């Protein structure tokens, strides 16, 4: 207690001493200035925005790490300064701040009336679908949307926009807000409140939004902080993924080889079908010629049949008969036999060409692979990342090839029967030609030996037999020509199908070529897929890895030894106005001595 009284008396004496005593005290301070030494400097930029995001004020807290006491020159354009370390005055002039700093940490604040932030921020509020000014939102109820847009301010050094990470935080009172929904943000509990935090990467514009139900609307100020994105990003382990990519590229290469084999098979098929079409064209034309000749053959055979019948009847009814009229008959029979033999030779050539064409077709059809590709296999190929257009063509080509193979299997028996039919017709025609030749030769021999009535009687009997047998031959010939006509009509339809098949296989060959070109391009473009994936990962890491960033001063490019620069930004809160009160508050007035004594009580 006595000690406190002594201190009180000493302090009172100092207060009442005349000012000249203080002025008469000797001044031992030197006026010589010594240059100080600065190790590092940190800057924290504080800014306030209105509720819409417009800038209100900026001030910077500068933190100097002084290793040698003395005069420190710092740079910056400030409207006013405040020493936050001691009571010494700070001198300002020509964008310089002169500081007499002691050793250690020295803090001072510089206010900027005309500063700009590296980011422009716009904030809009929509209540029940209508955009509203924040000044009239306080106390409102409804469905609220808040939209925040951040983008580069081109008036400021772009280094901050390019290398700094923005974190934007909003705090919501659960008594006022419900059903909060956010896009690309993080929501956590902070005490009883909900805090929503959005992150905007360097060099990116921010398009942020949230929705919530609100009653009696109020909103604490939105906090925005900006720090360098100096974290180092380690490359991920992609060995397993690279192995899968290599498997994919190998599979695509195998698909390309398979499509190449399919293309070769389809070309062989197309060549075989083209040969079949050409052979079928010849066969069709030959059948048409035979069918057209059938009418003449029937007419000639009918004439012979009638002539034989007439001769036979004439010999039976007449006692005298001029045998010279019969000498022309064998020659006519021989000509007819020669015509049938030529027809048989033509059919033999036609059969040979048909067999060659049919053999080519059969080989080509057998070359089409018979393996089955399931829907699951096709979906797996689509999911592998292969070009969808190429896969579509591959599936279409596979389907068309299977349809062609199935169609051929259905008509193969008909193709095989054509050879048998040609062989039988050829044999029948040769038999008829041989029979006519035999008749002609026999008739010639008979006519040469005729010199009396006995021979005539024999001739009469022979001609009667010949006429009767030839009638049967003529009936068979009529049946044959009718069969040839039906075969010609049926084969015309078969040939039309072969022509359509040839057109389809030709288009299939073109599609296979295009498909093979597509799978070749796909295989080529994906052959280095693992390396390309690694290059893309390296590029993305390089884009966001700012660990080699050297900080620069926000207030002046002349400042050196910059260690860190941070931004702390906050918007105004939106609050309801406080109700005025008429209650008078009584404030006790205290005198100087009373306040002084309170310091020691």
Number of helices: 10
What radius of gyration results from the CA coordinates?
Answer: 56 Å
Q: How many strands, which pairing sense, and closed or not: the largest β-sheet?
A: 9 strands, mixed
Q: Mean pLDDT, nearest integer?
A: 76
Provide the number of structural domains.
Answer: 2
Distance between the termini: 10 Å
Strand content: 15-25%
Question: What's the shape?
Answer: rod-shaped
Helix content: 40-55%
What is the N-to-C succession of helices and strands? HHEEEEEEEEEEHEEEEEEHHHHHHEH
**How is the largest sheet built, in terms of strand order?**
4-7-2-1-17-16-11-14-13
The overall strand count is 17
Can you tell me the residue ranges where pLDDT is under 50 for at least 5 consecutive residues? 1-30, 580-584
Structural class of the helix and strand makeup?
A: alpha+beta
Topology summary:
Layout: H1 2-16, H2 19-23, E1 37-49, E2 55-68, E3 70-75, E4 80-83, E5 91-93, E6 96-101, E7 104-112, E8 119-127, E9 130-132, E10 142-152, H3 159-163, E11 164-172, E12 177-182, E13 186-190, E14 193-200, E15 206-214, E16 223-228, H4 239-317, H5 328-367, H6 375-383, H7 388-448, H8 453-526, H9 529-544, E17 562-571, H10 592-598
InterPro entries: xxxLxxG_rpt (IPR023908)
Keywords: Signal
Organism: Halalkalibacter alkalisediminis
């Amino acid at each position: 207690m006595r000690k406190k009284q002594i201190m009180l008396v000493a302090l009172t004496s100092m207060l009442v001493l005349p000012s000249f005593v203080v002025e008469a005290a000797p001044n031992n301070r030197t006026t010589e200035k010594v240059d100080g030494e600065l190790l590092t400097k940190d800057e924290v930029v504080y800014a306030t925005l209105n509720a819409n995001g417009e800038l209100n004020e900026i001030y910077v807290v500068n933190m100097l790490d002084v290793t040698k006491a003395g005069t420190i020159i710092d740079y910056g354009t400030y409207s006013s300064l405040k020493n936050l370390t001691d009571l010494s005055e700070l001198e300002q002039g020509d964008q310089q701040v002169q500081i007499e700093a002691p050793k250690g940490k020295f803090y001072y604040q510089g206010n900027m009336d005309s500063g700009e932030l590296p980011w422009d921020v716009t904030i809009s509020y929509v209540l029940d679908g209508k955009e509203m000014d924040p000044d009239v939102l306080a106390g409102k109820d409804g469905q609220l949307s808040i939209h925040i847009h951040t983008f580069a301010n081109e008036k400021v050094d772009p280094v901050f926009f390019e290398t700094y990470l923005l974190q934007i935080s909003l705090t919501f009172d659960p008594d006022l807000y419900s059903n909060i929904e956010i896009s690309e943000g993080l929501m956590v509990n902070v005490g009883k409140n909900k805090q929503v935090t959005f992150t905007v990467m360097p060099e990116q514009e921010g398009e942020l939004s949230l929705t919530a139900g609100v009653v009696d609307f109020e909103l604490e100020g939105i906090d925005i902080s900006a720090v360098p994105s100096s974290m180092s990003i380690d490359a991920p382990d992609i060995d397993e993924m690279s192995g899968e990519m290599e498997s994919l590229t190998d599979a695509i290469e195998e698909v390309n080889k398979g499509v190449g084999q399919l293309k070769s098979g389809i070309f062989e098929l197309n060549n075989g079908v083209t040969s079949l079409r050409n052979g079928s064209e010849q066969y069709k034309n030959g059948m048409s010629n035979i069918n057209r000749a059938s009418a003449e053959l029937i007419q000639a055979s009918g004439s012979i049949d009638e002539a034989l019948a007439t001769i036979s009847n004439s010999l039976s009814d007449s006692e005298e008969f001029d045998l010279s009229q019969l000498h022309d008959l064998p020659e006519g029979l021989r000509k007819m036999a020669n015509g049938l033999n030529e027809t048989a030779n033509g059919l033999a050539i036609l059969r040979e060409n048909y067999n060659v064409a049919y053999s080519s077709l059969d080989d080509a059809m057998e070359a089409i692979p018979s393996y089955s590709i399931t829907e699951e296999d096709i979906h797996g190929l689509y999911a592998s990342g292969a070009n969808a257009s190429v896969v579509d063509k591959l599936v279409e080509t596979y389907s068309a090839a299977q349809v062609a193979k199935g169609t051929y299997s259905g008509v193969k028996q008909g193709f095989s029967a054509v050879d048998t039919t040609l062989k039988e017709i050829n044999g029948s025609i040769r038999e008829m030609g041989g029979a006519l030749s035999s008749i002609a030769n026999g008739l010639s021999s008979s006519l040469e030996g005729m010199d009396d009535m006995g021979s005539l009687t024999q001739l009469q009997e022979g001609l009667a037999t010949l006429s009767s047998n030839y009638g049967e031959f003529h009936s068979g010939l009529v049946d044959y020509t009718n069969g040839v006509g039906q075969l010609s009509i049926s084969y015309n339809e078969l040939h039309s199908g072969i022509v359509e098949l040839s057109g389809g296989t030709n288009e299939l060959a073109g599609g296979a070529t295009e498909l093979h070109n597509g799978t070749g391009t796909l295989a080529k473009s994906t052959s280095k897929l693992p390396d390309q994936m690694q290059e893309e990962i390296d590029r993305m890491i390089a884009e966001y890895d700012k660990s080699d960033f050297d900080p620069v001063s926000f207030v002046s490019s002349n400042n050196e030894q910059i260690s860190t620069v941070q931004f702390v930004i906050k918007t105004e809160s939106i609050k309801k106005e406080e109700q005025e009160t008429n209650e008078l508050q009584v404030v006790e007035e205290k005198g100087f001595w009373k306040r002084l004594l309170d310091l020691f009580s």
